[in-house]
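queue> pop job 88
queue> type: inverse folding (structure -> sequence)
queue> payload:
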């Protein structure tokens, strides 16, 4: 059963806290399993990678078939229907256009005392992109990961994707071809993350690992952070819909079920000012669930962590949304643009009744790799900035050095770092 809460109930605070603390993703148990897998890949390289892939994915790979050949990529890309190719191309063009606007500019200037200061952006050399593929397959996630990498100018993109029972959705490889990704491996889960971080004979290590995945992938990214960079924790999907009486219950129910469909650990929450809408959405969810082909998976996603919360005002709705910090926040209200600036914590915001979250998953142009598990309080969705790094540039001439030297020497003395002070003063009295 999903939770039904009302802010006016006496036990609301305790039940809301329990909802916030619900363990959807990282348990000690998952952490321990992942720890063992990473250690195994570090110790035994390809042998461990192959063994674990065949164990978890039943993929029947060998070291020599871990990487997709160029012929396999071409053949799969040729197998997709013209409709699928065209949809992928539409998505690719829109994602590319939006991400081009995120490219940061270098800048350099000389200040009033003659010091040159600047900021330079450089693409990361090698990135790993994780494309999930356990319960569903995600050609759209290929584009969401690869396009910003390409726009940023990353040289090497190594893509990993699990192939359950040795099968791959041809659209995954078609999307990779459209995005210009050629280095693709049949591995997933924690073992794929470990291989990207530490390297094996077949997979050279990367500098940073991006992309969404289940609890095992998220835990592995946490554990390899430091050895490599990671984008964020983009784990099991979430949506929070804020709705007033202008919302359509059938549409809201459909949006809640769309995220629940991602399965284990997914979370769909409705926060509404209208008790009648709350009832109508609950009934609609049951009605729509019964006709969904993936009913069981979606039901688990909805019933385990789903919730309908009735509030006294939109002010209360905003406050709860900011505390929950959901991956996606839909504003199914009369005046979404007025409410939008008040939502501080969200991976992405969807404006109004005609913007289902699924448009953002596929073709809107914004990125669908977004922070989950309340990390939208401090993290952002994937974008070009994740694939570049910033270097500062500094230059003094004799006169600006003379102006800054006394303060620098004083601070060096305060820190008792004499060699620091000397490296400044030695340049002054010639
Ligand atoms: N936040 C985002 O931006 C975003 C975007 C797309 C998808 N997602 C999420 O990605 C997830 C995809 O999950 P998925 O499972 O379909 O694919 P996945 O590729 O993330 O995970 C599959 C892998 O999990 C590993 N695994 C499964 N059970 C295991 C076990 N018992 N022990 C060790 N390893 C195990 C296996 O190695 C398998 O290859 C969903 O939760 C979905 O909500 C998130
Ligand atoms: N909703 C997911 C992000 O949480 C992304 C996705 C891809 N395909 C379908 N959905
Ligand atoms: Zn989705």
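queue> result:
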């Amino acid at each position: 059963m999903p939770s039904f809460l009302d802010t006016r109930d006496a036990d609301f605070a305790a039940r809301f806290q329990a909802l916030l603390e619900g363990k959807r993703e990282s348990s000690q148990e998952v952490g321990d399993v992942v720890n063992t897998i990473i250690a195994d890949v570090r110790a035994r390289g390809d042998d461990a990678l192959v063994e674990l892939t065949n164990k978890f994915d039943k993929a029947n790979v060998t070291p020599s078939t871990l990487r997709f050949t160029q012929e396999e990529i071409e053949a799969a890309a040729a197998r997709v229907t013209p409709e699928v190719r065209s949809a992928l191309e539409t998505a690719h063009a829109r994602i590319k256009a939006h991400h081009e606007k995120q490219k940061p500019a270098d800048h350099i200037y000389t200040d009033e005392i003659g010091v040159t200061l600047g900021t330079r952006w450089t693409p990361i050399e090698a990135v790993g992109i994780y494309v999930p593929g356990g319960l569903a397959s995600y050609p759209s996630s290929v584009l969401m990961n690869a396009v910003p990498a390409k726009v940023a100018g990353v040289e090497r993109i190594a893509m990993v994707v699990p192939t359950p029972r040795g099968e791959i959705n041809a659209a995954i490889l078609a999307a990779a071809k459209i995005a210009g990704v050629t280095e693709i491996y049949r591995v997933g889960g924690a073992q794929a993350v470990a291989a990207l971080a530490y390297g094996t004979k077949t997979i050279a290590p990367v500098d940073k690992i991006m992309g969404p995945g289940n609890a095992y992938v998220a835990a592995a990214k946490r554990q390899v952070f430091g050895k490599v960079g990671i984008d964020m924790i983009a784990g099991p999907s979430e949506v929070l819909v804020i709705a007033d009486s202008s919302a359509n219950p059938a549409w809201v129910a459909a949006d809640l079920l769309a995220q629940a469909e991602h399965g284990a650990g997914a979370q769909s929450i409705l926060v509404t000012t209208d008790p009648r809408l709350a009832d109508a959405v609950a009934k609609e969810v049951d009605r729509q669930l019964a006709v969904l082909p993936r009913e069981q998976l979606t039901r688990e996603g909805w019933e385990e962590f789903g919730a309908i919360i009735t509030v006294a005002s939109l002010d209360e709705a905003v406050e709860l949304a900011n505390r929950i910090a959901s991956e996606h926040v839909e504003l199914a209200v009369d005046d979404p643009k007025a409410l939008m600036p008040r939502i501080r914590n969200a991976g992405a915001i969807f404006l109004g009744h005609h913007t289902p979250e699924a448009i953002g998953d596929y073709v809107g142009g914004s990125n669908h790799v977004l922070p989950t598990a309340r990390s939208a309080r401090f993290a952002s969705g994937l974008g070009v900035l994740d694939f570049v790094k910033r270097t500062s540039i500094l230059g003094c001439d004799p006169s600006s050095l003379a102006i800054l030297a006394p303060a620098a020497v004083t601070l060096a003395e305060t820190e008792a770092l004499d060699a620091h002070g000397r490296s400044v003063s030695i340049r002054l009295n010639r």
